[in-house]
Design goal:
It contains 6 helices and 11 strands. The chain is α+β, with helices and mostly antiparallel strands and 251 residues long.
Length: 251
């Protein structure tokens, strides 16, 4: 599907959709929290690489000028005082004139490059959302905003781990190279078959768990920091942009 078609028709996770186009995480917070969130993203660029920030009340982005941020994501999350209160498919009734939206790079953007390099994507092959985990690594706090880093995990054949790291490393604006490969316990993850977000994905013989910093990190920060209100995407249900993913490739 094209980006327009995904934004209009997708109802589930967007991994593997609109091949060749970048995807983004969304977090929208009241303007009086926006500076703290911006500072948090700047201090933690690996999990929170910012692609665009809107004006207060805005619901358009240069990443897809004709798209409406209130309706273009398959599923949203509404937060009040750090508590998840709903997962609507249309955020319009909840949108406020003081919301500042942050579009943050997503690792789905480099998955096309992984496939081109011969790296299989087990979650796409199994028609599942990617696995995501809250780690034991605390992000650098910024004002009122603090919380742990979240990672996405992909099962990668052992002989292709270096390839996956090299290919994703060429796209730092969408999380870049992995933060860890191997023993999940090093990140405080007890069981890779029970993710905190997304779906469990079944490995094949010889696969190694590889972990990338994840744009769901701001949602973990919402739970820890408890701003009075926020809207985000549901994990794995991304904003598909009109920007070719090659735009974010360096070298």
């Amino acid at each position: 599907m094209t980006p327009d078609e995904v934004r209009a028709r997708a109802s589930g996770p967007t991994a593997g959709l609109a091949a060749g186009f970048a995807q983004a995480n969304l977090i929208a917070v009241p303007a009086d929290w926006a500076y703290d969130v911006l500072l948090f993203t700047q201090r933690n660029p690996k999990p929170c690489p910012v692609l665009d920030v809107t004006d207060a009340g805005g619901h358009r982005t240069v990443l897809a000028p004709d798209a409406d941020l209130r309706t273009a994501i398959p599923r949203y999350r509404v937060w009040r005082d750090g508590v998840l209160t709903g997962e609507p498919t249309d955020a319009t009734p909840f949108w406020r004139d003081d919301l500042v939206s942050f579009l943050i790079g997503c690792s789905f953007t480099f998955e096309g490059a992984l496939v081109e390099a011969g790296v299989p994507l087990r979650h796409v092959d199994q028609d599942r959302n990617v696995s995501m985990f809250v780690t034991n690594r605390e992000c650098r706090a910024a004002g009122r905003v603090h919380g742990p880093m979240v990672v996405s995990m992909r099962w990668i054949p052992a002989d292709l781990v270096d390839t996956a790291a090299r290919v994703s490393g060429l796209m730092p604006a969408v999380h870049g190279s992995p933060v860890h490969a191997g023993d999940p316990a090093a990140l405080g993850i007890a069981d890779p078959s029970t993710p905190d977000f997304g779906d469990a994905v079944v490995p094949e013989d010889g696969d190694v768990p590889v972990f990338w910093a994840c744009g769901v990190t701001p949602q973990a920060a919402l739970m820890a920091s408890k701003p009075p209100f926020a809207i985000t995407h549901a994990p794995g249900h991304m904003f598909v942009t009109d920007v070719p993913d090659s735009t974010y490739r360096v070298g």
